Amino acid sequence: MEKVISVSLGEIVLKGLNRKYFEDKLIKQIRKAINDLGYEKIYKEQGKIYIEADDGVFPQITHRLRKVFGLVYISPCIKVEKDMEKIGEAAVELIKNKLAESSYRTFKVETNRSDKSFPIKSPDISRAIGGVILRNFNELKVDVHNPDIYLYVDIKQNAYIYIDRIKGYGGLPLGTNGKGLLLLSGGIDSPVAGFMMAKRGVEISCVHYHSYPFTSERAEEKVKDLAHILSRYMGEIKMYSVNILNIQKAINKNCPENQMTILSRRFMMRIAERIALENDYNALITGENLGQVASQTIYGLNATNRSVSLPVFRPLIGFDKVDIIEIAKDIETYETSIQPYEDCCTVFLPKHPVTKPKVEDIEESEKALDIELLIEDAIENMKIYTIS
Ligand code: ATP
Ligand code: MG
User: How far is Cα 381 from Cα 376, in angstroms, rounded to an integer?
Assistant: First the structure.
């Protein structure tokens, strides 16, 4: 019996006339993800994508596919002709393997007949295959409400029979929604924010700000490690590394101490916008979250935001910290994020940061700075890395 992996698409199926574009992008991402594992063929068949490969590498392929955006379920299947006897044999084979894993008592067959020319209707197929299973496995009963095992039968050009449905992340294929520039710190939030936007199809590049030699080289390595983990989902990531020590010194010397964080945050945004405009990124992305710290009150966010005109995506804005941590653990950035290395923001951390900054006051303070010169100087000295 031939074994293949099936991939169910999520929102892509809603794309109407653009659907082919999204499917082709997804196939490209799937190819990229599993290329080195060796597969024979990837093909589409009536709404799903199928991968032919040696079933010895199915577990690795499945593991890689879980990190590809745009797919909702991944299932190892048996592929047979549309012949009830063969479908029955495949069902028995799958159930036998399933029962070898653990003991189950109840099952249900669910059929989806995309090929309406097949003469037997879905409920009748389910009933017939259910009968075959009952005859072969005395220990199993049917439970249509809450079965231990679902056995799925998809009737397309071929028949596909499967039990396991491994959940993917959903979203849209990478590269279907332009490019964004993520402000990546070493913290917990910004890697999660990058992941969330990539899941919506945005290709991600990163900018990181440091205050070397006040912050260590190891602190920068940590951020590269985070970008490396993200690259498992997003492919190669470009990282711009910008030293803002001179900017922080200038703020520290010329502006009110309690505005330090907001003022440096505005420089981060401006520099990011500059890089974005020069490199064709259409949005900035941050891990900001309403109310989390003094600089992220609604007033702080307003004051920060007013320094740029590109859209700023803040996918975590309404999340609770526990929920962000849960995603960070799931995408495997958490352990790296909690390593204790210094961040540039901690270098000149004000004792009592403003929580209700007024934009006019902030702009007034900035008059003491040569903003343009500071930005140009920082950008001129930035380093660019490619991380994969
Ligand atoms: P994170 O966990 O992402 O560091 P945070 O809760 O510590 O977030 P802040 O330090 O206030 O929050 O930063 C808010 C956002 O500003 C970050 O999510 C990130 O997008 C951006 N940011 C902060 N520091 C840096 C930095 N050194 N380099 C690049 N971006 C930064
Ligand atoms: Mg931080």
Answer: 9
